[in-house]
Amino acid sequence: MKTKSLLLAALSFSAVTFAQKKEIKSAEKTVESGSYAEAQTEINGLEGMMGQMDEKEKEYYYFVKGRAYLGGEENKNADDLLKAMEAFSKVSEFNDGDKYGDEAMNYKQTAMNAVISSAVDDQNAQKYDAAANKLYTLYTLTPKDTSYLYFAASNAVNGQNYDTALDYYSKLKDLGYTGIETKYTAKNKENGQVESFPSEQQRDLFVKSGSHEDPKTEVTESRSGEIAKNIALIYIQEGKNEEALGAIKDALAENPDDDALLRSAADVYLKMGMTEEYEATLNKVIAKDPNNPGLYFNLGVGAADSGNTEKALGYYRKALEIDPNYAGANLNIAALMLGKDKEIIEQMNSLGNTKADNKKYEELKAERLKLYNDAVPYLEKATSGDKPNIEAVRTLYNIHVQLGNDEEAKEYKTKLDAMQG
């Protein structure tokens, strides 16, 4: 009797197993018919029976579930696509993915590409929170690819969701993420396009075959400095200056000679009004790159922000020694020079009608005109490139009006009108 009961139980279990497999098969047929919503309902109805499925059936179940949520090529529903990725990821957890594992990974990549495209669309539409959520979910489903976490953090910052951004950046810091990549490229001889290859060996094969030329290997910059800077800036945004300084100091302690990190640290010091620390840090960068006019320009901006006009002029002039056409330095020198104009006008307006006052007035007037003439060459340099600064053009027009230079005033008025449409 006992043997008979065991036999009946075994037969009963086989019947249940057969029924489950039959229902999964039914859901698969619904998928193949293109009725994806109906297939989702069918497959989800089997979730409560998972405990009765064996390894092979679970592998089959998740494969069909992934296909149901993946849908057709036109599917743009990110939530469904992420569910598809999650299901395809589970396929290999059962039965070692022997039957459906490879196919599931291909489908998962298809779903991933569609989610990435959706996140890019959100980013371009300035729907930063939606993009951040999709990218973070991609990271949780493919944790080895930490770049998704990085881009999720960037979108969270753009969406001003600073708590979330700080959480993501902190995770990246703990993971030791740098974002450094080695890129292998070569130019396609047929269309002239530079193409990337997954490995040096593959690129070299194409070059040897004669279809490509000009092979290059490039190593991208580390993102660790940017991450440390953003962590610090978020702390500043929240009024947590001590935490901001701590974040930068910790990062510098680990990578004291990292150029990107030093530049980021300088940005933070400037933001916090720590002029001495800013200059000292940027000077370390200059020591490695002494012919970079932009570094001296940045020092000039820092000095000007702290009210040290003479030091700022010195830095701007140093930038012009390296690159006489550096538009920003030319423009800022002119701006500092013309900044004295207000003071001169105030003095002129405060004078009376005495002989001495009239004499002083003429002296100040001459000083003011000299100021304009001295500023003109710098402003002209700032407007000489392909994209002239509109404020420099407007200032030149006003100066030539004041100086009585009618032809020059007319010339710059024409330029100004063209730039303003």
Automatic annotation (TrEMBL):
Q: Which Pfam families match?
A: TPR_19, TPR_2
InterPro entries for this protein: TPR-like_helical_dom_sf (IPR011990), TPR_2 (IPR013105), TPR_rpt (IPR019734)
GO molecular function terms noted in the UniProt entry: mannosyltransferase activity
Chain positions of TPR repeats: 225-258, 293-326
Q: Which UniProt keywords apply?
A: Repeat, Signal, TPR repeat
Q: Does the keyword Repeat apply?
A: yes
Say yes or no: keyword Signal present: yes
Signal peptide per UniProt: 1-19
GO biological process terms on file: protein O-linked glycosylation via mannose
Coiled coil: which residue ranges? none
Tell me the protein's name. Answer: Tetratricopeptide repeat protein
